[in-house]
Amino acid sequence: MNVGRTKAVPNEGAIADYLASFTAVAPHAAYAVVNVSSPNTPGLRTLQDRAALDELLGGVQRRNAAGKPVLVKIAPELYDVTVFGAE
Prior knowledge:
Layout: E1 2-3, H1 14-25, E2 32-35, H2 50-63, E3 70-73
Parallel strand pairs: 1-2, 2-3
Helix pairs in contact: 1-2
């Protein structure tokens, strides 16, 4: 499954939106993709900020009771990225 924010949801409500989508679809998916890189969704890439991404992925992992693999789709121009949970 690919989970992302639509244009109708502001960034202030994005994490709750991602988590609701993840929770609804995860039982039917082999793995999840958390998409924070759609250039057509205004402001979405601000969720690539470390604090926002920590909050989002932390929430996803807490809801990921089945331990399914989670991939993160980030902007291709980001090349100096610290892996979530690693320093």
